TrEMBL record, chain B:
One of its GO terms (molecular function) is calcium ion binding. It comes from Sphaeramia orbicularis. SUPFAM superfamilies: EF-hand. The keyword Aminoacyl-tRNA synthetase does not apply. The gene is efcab1. The keyword Lipid metabolism does not apply. Keywords: Calcium, Metal-binding, Repeat. InterPro entries: EF-hand-dom_pair, EF_Hand_1_Ca_BS, EF_hand_dom, Recoverin. Transmembrane segments: none annotated. PROSITE patterns: EF_HAND_1, EF_HAND_2. SMART domains: EFh. This is EF-hand domain-containing protein. Signal peptide: none annotated. Residues 65-100, 101-136, 146-181 form the EF-hand domain.
Length: 1006, 209
């Protein structure tokens, strides 16, 4: 318990030896466990219980002499045990308020005396003896315990050399017992922790974003402000410094609620809590936790700010309509290449399953005792334990097994039949089909799309295992599965197939069964079967592997054991069923990089591509051809999974996969088209694919498929067009095949955010061609797009704004945007943080600002200030885009001296940042600025001169200025009374002159 | 003679009533049958292939090895129960072997497994067929118990109408649910490789002649 107590228990203060155990559920659990360990110690280990401690455990007790009974020597308030050690010291001594105990048997007795205060006594004992193991066994042993050393012989030697005691044996046993307890406790606690909410950077970020939006001035605002303490975000999404990240901390926030003082908040993976006030740079003790831990920001704020609680309840619906943390977390930017395809849902579904399992688990936990739901089929088979049995403790493995066997027989013998009838009628309902079956019937096994997708990094996450802590709680399935695996090992082909069929009747999508198969060594057996010559055994094995691979852990285990290699080997077997099954299994297993690499390294990509080469005419198939097409479909599913890795994309291309995919694109079946288009859009991140898609004439098919009525299919199609339409010819082809109208019609499915993101992306890229913009005009696309500028996830907004920016290149569209009320949402988006979005927003605002009427609105909305504040953005792309956007503002601000002054000032200040000088020059800001000098307003002169001085530090700008005849007015200004103005003008002229001189020198010498 | 033979073939084709096998293929099968018949030790007496010859064919050409199952296959081929496989029985049986639909195969396997021909596969029949299928278990556990256990499980699984035995309808349903159960109690159909080998030998070889 050394490790558990020192590391896992939650003490009130981090450093000292006088800490108190906090009253947390975790500690409560810990105490209870230790208590039951002590209580049962005497009866379970009578010999070790007599072992005398190295030093007594001493603590302040609430017990008094009168609590003790006859077998103690009691004189006044002092109590002594009758049992003494070899030197005659009593093993228990009470001299109030202190108690000294020197053996487990005494500890045990004492605990039994305390009745209802047991936990308090344990707590006091642990608080006063921060390292009980040292006292029980001596310091050297305690060190062993910390070191997790299991070498018993060394222990023996150690004990022997240390002391010539007879009870060496006991001591070692005691040591092992304590070590075991420690381990058990840790497992329990981990189990507990794993059930608590785990926050991640993305979730926190989204919550912060959500709260940011609801800051403001209105009556119903939730908060005054919310800020990160650090602008810097690490690549893992954390903002906490690395040495705090190791504690699971993600970021720190400073939140000003409307009605209470400023809150300093730590967001960590374990939850959200108040700290001692981390501002910019935290002092070491600032990081300390000063409040309870909450599962998320909203719950913390609810408890800290009554007004927040009130308002959020009011807004509850509204807030929910905002993209919730969950949603955003899984919807990624369509642009992101390797990881960013909004398509995978199986994973998510699986997650949901886990989620459900977890909820169920927790619920059961709350009910006291865990229960495992046997799969329906077992109920049917009458193998389910009678209800009372779950409460029985199975003392050990073998007897548990026997028992279940008995139960089974009994059940078979007695009234199982009548019960079975009822069960069958239930199980024949369609709802009882396993999820896999349902999916197959829907046509696309591992890919359903309407739910969320996942990123590669997410796949990587190891899920904490939730498994029963000890044998006593193992579900009945475990024993049955163990038996079956034994049968497979010992049986011939017939028996193995029969056993595999029995195994298939378990609910293999259920984690309990999946882990049971793994834990009894079933995976090895199943994988071994793949290497035999028995076709039926291979089929059975794959059918099971395919299902249990829905678990991340199983997938990993299969790859670790080399099972994926065997599966790859089967892909080009002679049996059609095997080929299809192997490919299907690869599709499920190859969901993480190592697996994808394995497929490639063992030549799997080539084999899979070969499967695609089936019939050339996909309409009117014979039975036999249908089988081939089904194999091709499974192959495509596998390639789709594999295509998440760039190298595999190359491998598919090299194996000649692109034309084959192009051929399958003509299939009339959605179940085929989904993986085909999915793979294509995944691979379209590569230039070579984009070219091939265009040259192989696939755009025509893609546009045609865009017209299907399957959301998932449309999404993949739009996504592919999105990626390919960077190319002008592709854009023209989309128009030619009448794809633009279809894309616009997809905008009506605004509820499906993935589809919307893909469709708007495609529209954006297509609108780069002005012919397309004109065509879009016929379908009133712009009006629809403007409506999508609010209340959309960022992935959609980036694309919508990008498209609006392109549309705004045409003058009449600028007016349309204004008329539809698009200017205001655009300006609002300037306050965001998503860089891709900001690039597009500044571009769109800039394009709109070239229209005078728009400019007025932008200025009223303070848009110019917002744009120039973006010149300080860390991203060079945002900077340049912002600089570009400022230029039309400068041009259009001819009449308004106030605006001119501010603009010039802004440029002057922004020039001090990074490459802005050059960017302004490139964006054509210099020439209009020179014109500002013609203004009669001296304050305009001043700021303009300042700006020109800054700009003149860039040689190219000097040339432009000189060409625009800046020198003359500047010299005029130099005669001004204002010192600042003089200096700026003179500095600018000097820079121009220096350049001219340098230029002349160059001409002279070379 | 040719006309006569052709007529005979047509009749045979009608009787056999299988769309899967063409007339030419039937011709080839008949030729092959005659060759096999000639190899038989005392062909004169026989009305067809005898048990021993049939078993060696199953073993050599179709890779079957289980004696119980081979006898059962013989019994299933021998529809007129005269202990000989006539040419008609041969072709009918092979049409299932080579080109059988799932329906035909289910029926065939069921007949093979129903050793007493009472139209049910009983627990005893299952046990008889599976008797030696569990070779070893750890810790000296009795394999026979394991087999009994598996028979119970399988019976429960297939016995949809809860009469304690497996009827053709039960078997049919179970196999349609899980194809692997088709040859649950022993391999009684040739695998793809032997089919290919046989077809190559009999059909193509004959055509070349």
């Amino acid at each position: 318990m050394g490790i558990t107590l020192s590391r896992a228990a939650q003490w009130t203060t981090a450093s000292s030896n006088i800490g108190k155990l906090e009253f947390t559920p975790m500690n409560e659990l810990l105490l209870k466990e230790i208590l039951s360990f002590v209580e049962e110690f005497s009866s379970q280990h009578p010999q070790q219980a007599e072992h005398v401690f190295k030093e007594p455990l001493q603590w302040t007790t609430t017990l008094v002499a009168s609590d003790f009974k006859t077998d103690y020597d009691i004189s006044d308030s002092v109590v002594q045990s009758q049992e003494k050690d070899s030197e005659g010291h009593p093993l228990l001594l009470l001299s109030p308020p202190n108690v000294y105990v020197r053996s487990f048997s005494q500890l045990c007795k004492l605990v039994h005396l305390t009745n209802d205060k047991k936990l308090e006594e344990v707590r006091a004992c642990l608080e006063d003896n921060r390292n009980p193991v040292v006292k029980v066994l001596g310091p050297s042993f305690a060190a062993e315990l910390e070191g997790d050393n299991q070498d018993e012989t060394r222990l023996f030697a150690k004990v022997k050399e240390e002391e010539e005691h007879k009870d060496t044996d006991d001591k070692v046993k005691l040591f092992l017992l304590l070590q075991n307890l420690d381990k058990q406790l840790l497992i329990k606690l981990l189990h507990e922790i794993s059930q608590q909410v785990e926050l991640n950077p993305a979730a926190v970020k989204n919550e912060v974003e959500m709260l940011k939006r609801s800051c403001g001035n209105g009556e119903s605002r939730l908060l005054k402000s919310i800020q990160y303490t650090s602008d810097y975000e690490f690549s893992n999404g954390c903002r906490a410094p690395p040495w705090r990240q190791v504690h699971g901390e993600i970021c720190y926030l400073v939140i000003e609620p409307c009605d209470s003082e400023t809150l300093y908040i730590t967001c960590s993976t374990a939850g959200v809590f108040l700290n001692r006030g981390i501002k910019q740079k935290g002092e070491e003790n600032d990081y300390e936790r000063t409040s309870d831990t909450y599962e998320d920001l909203v719950s913390l704020l609810k408890s800290k700010s009554p007004q927040f609680a009130k308002n959020i309840n009011k807004q509850d619906c509204a807030v929910q309509e905002l993209p919730s943390t969950q949603k955003i977390q899984h919807v990624e930017s369509v642009d992101a290449e390797e990881q960013g395809q909004p398509q995978r849902s199986y994973e998510q579904q699986e997650k949901n399953v886990h989620e459900k399992a977890r909820q169920q688990h927790t619920a059961n936990k709350a009910g006291g005792k865990m229960k495992y739901e046997p799969c329906p089929r077992w109920k049917d088979l009458g193998l389910k334990c009678p209800p009372g049995r779950a409460e029985e403790k199975k003392p050990n493995k073998s007897s548990g097994e026997e028992k279940s066997g008995e139960m089974y027989k009994k059940k078979m013998a007695t009234g199982a039949k009548s019960k079975m009838k009822a069960d069958f009628s239930v199980s024949s309902l369609p709802g009882h089909l396993s999820p896999l079956k349902i999916k197959t019937s829907a046509g696309a096994l591992p890919v359903e799309v309407f739910s969320e997708s996942s990123t590669e990094s997410e796949e990587e996450e190891e899920q904490p295992e939730r498994r029963p802590e000890s044998n006593t709680d193992l579900p009945s399935e475990y024993w049955h599965i163990q038996k079956l695996v034994k049968y497979i090992k010992g049986g011939d082909q017939r028996f193995t197939v029969l056993t595999l069929c029995t195994l298939m009747d378990f609910n293999l999508m259920q984690e309990t069964c999946q882990l049971a198969i793994r834990d009894v060594g079933g995976l090895e057996v199943l994988i071994n079967l793949l290497d035999t010559n028995e076709v039926k055994c291979k089929i059975g094995s794959l059918k099971i592997l395919r299902k249990i691979s829905s678990s991340v852990q199983i997938r990993r285990a299969i790859v670790e054991m080399g099972g994926l290699q065997s599966i790859v080997k089967i892909v080009d077997s002679e049996e059609e069923e095997l080929m299809a099954l192997a490919a299907e299994t690869i599709a499920i297993v190859a969901r993480f990089p190592k697996a994808r690499r394995t497929v490639r390294q063992y030549g799997g990509i080539k084999k899979l591509v070969k499967l695609l080469d089936c019939v050339s005419n996909l309409a009117n198939l014979s039975v036999r051809q249908e089988k081939d097409v089904e194999i091709a479909r499974c192959g495509t599913l596998a390639l789709w999974s594999c295509s998440k890795s760039t190298r595999n994309k190359d491998a598919i291309r090299k194996a000649g996969g692109i034309p084959l995919l192009g051929r399958l694109l003509k299939s009339p079946h959605e179940s085929m088209l989904i993986p085909v288009v999915g793979t294509l859009q995944e691979c379209a991140s590569e230039e070579s694919y984009r070219i091939a898609i265009q040259t192989e004439g696939m755009i025509k098919d893609l546009v045609k498929i865009l017209g299907s009525d399957n959301d998932e299919l449309q999404m993949h199609c739009a996504s592919a067009i999105f990626k390919c339409a960077e190319d002008k010819q592709t854009r023209d082809l989309v128009r030619e095949y009448k794809g633009l109208q279809l894309l616009v019609s997809l905008l009506s499915k605004a509820d499906n955010k993935h589809l919307l993101a893909a469709a708007t992306g495609a529209i954006w890229k297509c609108s780069i061609s002005m012919e397309n913009v004109a065509k879009f005009g016929e379908y009133n696309a712009l009006e629809v797009l403007v409506n999508l500028l609010t209340d959309q996830p960022e992935e959609v907004l980036v694309n919508v704004v990008g498209a609006v920016g392109e549309f705004a290149q045409i003058p009449e569209n600028k007016a349309t945007i204004r008329r539809c009320g698009g200017i205001k949402p655009l300006v609002n988006l300037l306050t965001g943080t998503n860089q891709a979005l900001l690039v597009n927003v500044t571009k769109a605002v800039g394009a709109c600002a070239t229209d005078m009427d728009n400019m007025v609105i932008i200025d009223q909305l303070d848009g110019v200030r917002l744009v120039w504040s973006l010149l300080k953005n860390p991203s060079a792309d945002v900077q340049s885009s912002a600089a570009w956007a400022l230029c039309p503002c400068i041009n259009n601000a001819k009449t308004d001296d106030r605006l001119r002054r501010h603009l010039a000032e802004a440029i002057g200040h922004c020039c001090m940042w990074g490459s802005n000088k050059a960017l302004f020059g490139e964006a054509g800001a210099v020439a209009p600025l020179v014109c500002y000098l013609k203004s009669k307003d001296s304050s305009v002169h001043q700021s303009t001169a300042m700006a020109l001085y800054q700009l003149s530090k860039d040689p190219n700008n000097c040339i432009t200025m000189h060409e625009k005849g800046v020198v003359k007015p500047l010299i005029h200004i130099m005669g001004s009374d204002e010192e600042m103005l003089q200096e700026a003008a003179a500095g600018c002229v000097r820079n121009i002159r220096l350049l001219a001189l340098a230029n002349r020198k160059v001409q002279l010498f070379y | 003679f040719k006309a006569l033979f052709s007529n005979y073939l047509d009749n045979l084709k009608n009787i056999i009533n299988s769309k899967a096998i063409s007339k030419t293929e039937i011709e080839c099968l008949i030729c092959d049958f005659n060759v096999l018949l000639r190899e038989q030790i005392n062909p004169g007496k026989a009305n067809g292939l005898d048990r021993q010859n049939f078993r060696s064919i199953l073993y050599n050409k179709f890779g079957m090895s289980d004696a119980i199952i081979m006898d059962a296959v013989f019994r299933t081929f021998d529809t007129d129960v005269d202990s000989f496989i006539s040419v008609k029985e041969w072709i009918e049986g092979l049409s299932v072997f080579l080109r059988g639909t799932l329906d035909e195969k289910i029926k065939f396997c069921f007949q093979v497994y129903d050793s007493n021909g009472d139209n049910y596969i009983t627990k005893e029949e299952m046990f008889h067929m599976l008797r030696n299928s569990l070779i070893q278990l750890p810790n000296d556990e009795d394999p026979e118990e394991g087999v009994k256990d598996m028979v119970e499980i399988t019976l429960k699984r297939m016995d949809y109408d809860h009469d304690g035995k497996v009827s053709l309808a039960d078997f049919d349903k179970a196999v349609r649910e899980e194809n692997l159960l088709l040859e649950a109690f022993g391999t009684c159909l040739p695998d793809r490789k032997s089919i290919r080998g046989f077809e190559q030998q009999v059909f193509q070889h004959q055509l070349e002649k």
